[in-house]
Design goal:
With 918 residues, this protein is α+β, with helices and mostly antiparallel strands. Helices cover 37% and strands 14% of the residues. It has a five-stranded antiparallel β-sheet with strand order 9-10-6-12-13. Strands 17-18-19-20-21 form a five-stranded antiparallel β-sheet, sandwiched between helices. Strands 8-7-11-14 form a four-stranded antiparallel β-sheet, covered by helices on one side.
Length: 918
C-alpha cells in the first residue's frame, strides 16, 4: 500500500494563520514550514520530491509533464480530463473544546494539501505496472463545505487525469492527520460515465496507527469472476486486511474479524465464584464470537482476561455504535444504573433483601417510582450516593419511575387468567416454545439411571378428566391436533440440583399441557413440576391442575409462576441470546472475512449486520458474564450460559431456523403446497406465526429475485469462490463444534443460496424483533413473567404450608423476585426493548440500497419489498381489529404488534429493525 509521509519541519509561524488563505495555493511556500513528500509506490508511479519554495524545480516539471499535486504523469494522447473528488465526512454531534481546536488544525493541514491523500485506481490495467492505472491528489480547501445535514461536511481534491485512464473502480485514501475521521462517501465528478460514487461509511484511521491506506470500492456490484482486472488484486488485498493472523491483542482502531470461543465470561482471578467454563469445545459446544486476543487470566490459562465497564471491549472499528445510538444506549444504561443501585442502597439498610409485601408495592414502581434513602453511615456509601444524586439531578427525576407495561395498562388483572397465560405462548414475548402434542405417554430422553423414570406423571386418565367437559378422549384430541405442550423438562432438569443449591433460588423443570377449545382459545389443563430423583422419591414429579376452591387456585397460580420462570430463562438464554445474537455474530464475522464489499451477497446482508458485534460485546461485559444481570436475576444463575450451551448441543440446527421449518418441527404447521409459504398453521389464530409468515414471505421473494438477478448463469453459485469460502467458514469456523453435522444445507444452486440468505435475514430482523421488543411490555410486570422463583410450592406435610394457608398472597409474593432483582431486570428489559432514534427498519431504503447500489433493477426490487411491507403493516392492523381472532383482540388485551415493520423511537412494542441492534 502507499507509504506516503509528509514531513513537517521547523516551528510554526504564529502569524501564518492570520494571513489571507487565497495567498496559499499549490506549491506555495508557507513560512515556518518545510514540506516534503517522500513516497514509495508498488504501482510504479513517478513522484516528485517537492520542497516548499523550490519554484525552479516545479517549473521544470511543469514544462516536461503535466503536474498533479506532487505526482508526475504523461498523457500519450496529450488529452486530459479535469476531475474532482468530493469526500463527505461526518463530524461529531457533541464536540469538546479539544475537538474544535483539532478541527482548526485539520483545516489548516487540509488547506495546504497535506492531510488526506486520495488515489484513484482504474478498472483498467497499466501495461507497465500490471496493476490498475493510478493517479493521486491531496484534499485541499481551508474550510470544509457545510451540507444541509448539520454534521456532514465535504472536502475536495482536484485531478488532471489522462483521457485513457479508464473508469475508477477503487479509491485508496490515506489519513495523515493525528486522529481518525468518519468517511461517509466519495463522489468523483468529471469522467464521461457521469458522477461515480464510492460508498464508505467507515472510520479512516491515522497513518500512525496503520501505514496501509484504506481501500474504498465503487458502488458497482461484481461477482469475483466479474471483477475488473485493475481492481482484482485490491479486492483480494482488502479481504486479507480484515482477517488478521489470529495473534496478538486487538487494538480499538483495527478492523480485524476473527474467531474465538466464549472464554471471557468468567473472572477467575477475582475468585472461584466468578470462574466460568469455556463455551466452545467438545464438552460445551457454542458458536464462536469475535476474537479480542486479550492475554489469559493468571488463574486459568484457557480463560481470557476481562475488560470491565466502563472500558470498552474490542469490536472492529466500523461495528461500533454511531454517536446517536451511543447516546441513546448510554441513557438507557444510566437508567439501568439508577434502577440497579437505588434498590441496592435501600436493601443495604435491611438485614435481608426485601420482598414485595403486597401488590400495591409493585404498582408503586410505576406510580411513585423508587426514592433514595440517605440513611447509611458508611462513608464510601455516602460518597457514592452523592455522586448518584448528581446523576439524578442531571438526568431528571422521571428516570426513577417505570412506565406501566403494556400487559397491565388496559387490565391490571389480565395476567391472573388462564387464557392469558396460554395466549402468551402464541402472542407473547416467547412464542417459539409451544409444540403440538403428538404422542402419549410423555417420555423424557434423559438417562433414566441419572434422572429417574422417563415417563411423565401426567397420565392419560388425568388429561381425560380435564377433557370430559369437551367430550373428547386423549387419543381423539391428539388426532385432531387439539393438545399442545410447553416442555422444558429435558432442557432444565439436568441443572435443577445445581440451580437450587444457589442461595435464594428454587426451581423445577416444567411441562405444561394445553387444550385448544372449540371456541378458539388455548386452555392450560395440567402442569408437571419436577425435581431430580431422590432415594425416597425416584420420580419426584408433581402434577397440578386448576381447581375451584381457594387453596387449589393459589397453588395453581404458583405452578404457573414456576412455568413462567422456566419460560423466561429459556427465552433469554436460548431463543433470544443463542438463536439470534450469538448465531448472527458468526455469520457476520464470516461475511466480512470472505465476501468483498462489492459482492452482491455482502451488499444484501450489510444492513442486517449493523451494531450486532457491539451489542454482543456489551452483553458479554455486563449481561451474560459471571455475576452479570442475567445470572443475578434469572433462575439458572451462574449456570445460565451452560444451559444455553446444552440447548445448542441438543436442539440448534441451521436448517430448522427458517420460520416454516421451525413451525413444522414443532408441529404448529403442516406442509400444504397450496398455501403461500407452503405450510398451513394448525392454530390459525397464532399471531407470531401468522404475522411472521407474512414477513418471511416478503423477505423470501426479495432474496429469490435478488439471487436470480446476480446468479443468472449455470453453476454461477458453485463457481463463486468467495461465496463458497463464506459458507464453508460459517460451518467450519463459526460453528466449529457442529461442523460435521449432516443437516447443514448444501450451497450448490440459486435455491440453496436463497434459502440460506432468507433464514439469516429473518433471524436478524423479524425473529429478533418478535422475541426482543416485548421484553418490557410483558416482563415489566413481575407477577406476569417472573424471571426467578425463590421458593418451592409448599406441601401439606411441610411447615411452610401453614404459613401459606394463613397468607397465600404473601407466599406468592415472597416466591417472586425480590425488589432488588425485579427492579434490576425491569431496567434491563426496558433498555433492551428501546428503539434508538437512528434505527433503520426493515423495508426502509438504507444508504447501501440508495445511490450506493448502481443497479436500477436491484433498486426496483427493494422498492417492491418496501411496498410489500407497507401492505403487511395494514394487514396486521386489520387482524388486530378482527374480533374473531381472540389471541390478538379482546377487552384489555394489548394488540399483537411485535411484527409490525415500522416504529418510532423508545419502548413501542412494535417495529422490525434490519439487524440485531439492541
Amino acid at each position: 500500500m502507499l507509504t506516503a509521509q509528509p514531513t513537517l519541519t521547523g516551528k510554526p509561524d504564529p502569524s501564518a494563520a492570520t494571513r489571507p488563505t487565497a495567498a496559499i495555493g499549490r506549491g506555495t511556500h508557507v513560512p515556518g514550514f518545510q514540506f516534503k513528500v517522500k513516497e514509495k509506490s508498488r504501482r510504479g508511479l513517478v513522484r516528485a520530491v517537492i520542497s516548499g519554495g523550490d519554484s525552479k524545480t516545479r517549473e521544470k516539471l511543469s514544462s516536461d509533464h503535466e503536474y498533479n499535486n506532487g505526482s508526475v504523469f504523461s498523457s500519450p494522447s496529450g488529452a486530459w480530463i479535469d476531475v474532482r473528488a468530493v469526500i463527505t465526512i461526518r463530524k461529531k454531534m457533541k464536540e469538546k473544546i479539544n475537538d474544535k481546536i483539532e478541527d482548526q488544525w485539520e483545516w489548516f493541514v487540509n488547506g495546504i494539501g497535506q492531510g488526506i491523500l486520495i488515489q484513484l485506481i482504474s478498472e483498467e490495467i497499466d501495461p507497465v505496472t500490471k496493476s490498475g492505472k493510478s493517479i493521486e491528489s491531496y484534499v485541499r480547501g481551508w474550510l470544509p463545505k457545510q451540507l444541509s445535514h448539520p454534521y456532514l461536511v465535504t472536502y475536495a481534491a482536484n485531478f488532471r487525469v489522462p483521457s485513457d485512464f479508464g473508469c475508477p473502480g477503487a479509491i485508496l485514501i490515506t489519513n495523515f492527520h493525528g486522529k481518525e475521521f468518519h468517511l461517509m462517501e466519495i463522489a468523483v465528478h468529471g469522467f464521461k460515465q457521469g458522477s461515480l460514487f464510492f460508498p464508505a461509511d467507515t472510520w479512516i484511521h491515522p497513518r500512525n496507527d496503520n501505514p496501509e491506506s484504506r481501500i474504498i470500492f465503487t458502488n458497482k456490484t461484481y461477482l469475483p469472476s466479474q471483477t475488473p482486472p485493475g481492481i482484482k488484486d485490491l479486492r483480494r488485498e482488502d479481504l486479507l486486511s480484515v482477517r488478521g493472523n489470529g495473534k496478538g491483542e486487538r487494538k480499538m482502531h483495527e478492523r480485524i474479524f476473527d474467531y474465538a470461543p466464549y472464554n471471557d465470561l468468567g473472572n477467575p482471578d477475582k475468585g472461584e465464584d466468578l470462574a466460568r467454563p469455556v463455551l466452545g469445545d467438545e464438552e460445551r459446544p457454542y458458536p464462536r464470537r469475535c476474537r479480542t486476543g486479550r492475554p489469559p487470566t493468571k488463574s486459568d490459562p484457557f480463560s481470557e482476561s476481562r475488560i470491565e465497564k466502563p472500558h470498552p471491549v474490542y469490536v472492529p472499528r466500523d461495528e461500533t455504535f454511531e454517536e446517536i445510538k451511543q447516546n441513546t444506549f448510554s441513557a438507557g444504561r444510566l437508567k439501568a444504573l439508577l434502577h440497579n443501585l437505588i434498590p441496592s442502597i435501600a436493601a443495604s439498610l435491611s438485614s435481608t433483601d426485601i420482598s414485595f409485601k403486597c401488590f400495591s408495592e409493585i404498582d408503586k414502581l410505576y406510580n411513585d417510582g423508587v426514592f433514595l434513602k440517605d440513611e447509611d453511615e458508611n462513608i464510601t456509601e455516602k460518597q457514592f450516593l452523592a455522586n448518584l444524586m448528581r446523576r439524578v439531578a442531571t438526568v431528571g427525576q422521571r428516570l426513577l419511575k417505570y412506565e406501566v407495561p403494556a400487559i397491565i395498562k388496559r387490565d391490571r388483572f389480565v395476567w391472573l387468567r388462564d387464557n392469558e397465560f396460554a395466549r402468551q405462548t402464541l402472542a407473547g414475548v416467547n412464542p417459539v416454545g409451544i409444540e403440538l402434542l403428538r404422542e402419549f405417554p410423555l417420555l423424557s430422553n434423559l438417562d433414566p439411571a441419572v434422572y429417574g423414570p422417563p415417563e411423565s406423571a401426567i397420565t392419560k386418565d388425568l388429561i381425560e378428566q380435564e377433557l370430559l367437559q369437551h367430550g373428547m378422549s386423549v387419543d381423539e384430541a391428539i388426532e385432531k391436533k387439539k393438545l399442545f405442550i410447553l416442555d422444558y423438562y429435558d432442557m432444565v432438569l439436568p441443572f435443577i440440583e445445581k440451580m437450587n443449591s444457589l442461595p435464594g433460588r428454587k426451581a423445577y423443570a416444567s411441562r405444561t399441557i394445553f387444550f385448544y377449545t372449540r371456541t378458539g382459545f388455548l386452555r392450560p389443563i395440567a402442569i408437571e413440576l419436577s425435581l431430580p430423583p431422590t432415594s425416597s422419591s425416584p420420580g419426584n414429579k408433581r402434577v397440578y391442575t386448576h381447581g375451584h376452591d381457594n387453596t387449589t387456585h393459589w397453588i395453581w397460580k404458583l405452578a404457573k409462576a414456576h412455568v413462567c420462570s422456566n419460560d423466561a430463562g429459556v427465552h433469554q438464554l436460548v431463543n433470544h441470546w443463542l438463536r439470534t445474537h450469538a448465531c448472527m455474530e458468526s455469520y457476520i464475522i464470516a461475511t466480512h472475512r470472505q465476501l468483498s464489499s462489492m459482492h452482491p451477497v455482502y451488499k444484501l446482508l450489510h444492513p442486517h449486520m449493523r451494531y450486532t458485534l457491539e451489542i454482543n460485546a456489551l452483553a458479554r461485559q455486563s449481561l451474560i458474564n459471571g455475576g452479570g444481570i442475567i445470572e443475578a436475576c434469572f433462575s439458572p444463575g451462574k449456570y445460565s450460559m451452560e444451559i444455553s450451551s446444552a440447548a445448542y448441543r441438543s436442539m440448534w440446527r441451521f436448517d430448522m431456523e427458517a420460520l416454516p421449518a421451525d413451525l413444522i418441527r414443532r408441529g404448529m404447521a403442516v406442509e400444504d403446497p397450496s398455501m403461500p409459504c407452503g405450510i398451513k398453521l394448525v392454530i390459525e389464530d397464532y399471531p407470531y406465526a401468522a404475522d411472521g409468515l407474512l414477513i418471511w414471505s416478503a423477505i423470501k421473494d426479495l432474496v429469490e429475485s435478488y439471487v436470480r438477478h446476480f446468479y443468472s448463469e449455470p453453476n454461477s453459485v458453485t463457481s463463486d469462490i468467495e461465496l463458497q469460502s463464506w459458507w464453508n467458514e460459517i460451518k467450519n469456523k463459526g460453528h466449529y463444534d457442529k461442523r460435521n453435522e449432516p443437516w447443514w444445507p448444501k450451497l450448490n444452486t440459486k435455491e440453496d443460496l436463497s434459502g440460506i440468505l432468507t433464514t439469516m435475514i429473518w433471524i436478524a430482523s423479524g425473529q429478533h424483533a418478535a422475541i426482543n421488543f416485548g421484553q418490557y411490555p410483558f416482563g415489566g410486570y413481575v407477577p406476569n413473567r417472573p424471571t426467578i422463583m425463590r421458593r418451592l410450592i409448599p406441601q401439606e406435610d411441610e411447615p411452610e404450608y401453614e404459613k401459606f394457608m394463613q397468607n397465600p398472597q404473601q407466599t406468592f409474593l415472597s416466591s417472586l423476585p425480590t425488589q432488588l432483582q425485579a427492579t434490576k431486570v425491569m431496567a434491563v428489559q426496558d433498555t433492551l426493548s428501546t428503539h434508538s432514534p437512528d434505527e433503520v427498519y426493515l423495508g426502509q431504503v438504507h444508504n447501501l440500497q440508495g445511490q450506493h447500489i448502481n443497479d436500477h433493477e436491484v433498486l426496483k426490487l427493494f422498492e417492491k419489498f418496501s411496498s410489500k411491507l407497507e401492505e403487511i403493516e395494514k394487514t396486521i392492523h386489520g387482524r388486530n381489529k378482527d374480533s374473531h381472532l381472540r389471541n390478538r383482540s379482546g377487552a384489555g388485551i394489548p394488540p399483537y404488534e411485535l411484527l409490525l415493520p415500522s416504529s418510532g423511537p423508545g419502548v413501542t412494542g412494535r417495529g422490525i429493525p434490519n439487524s440485531v441492534s439492541i
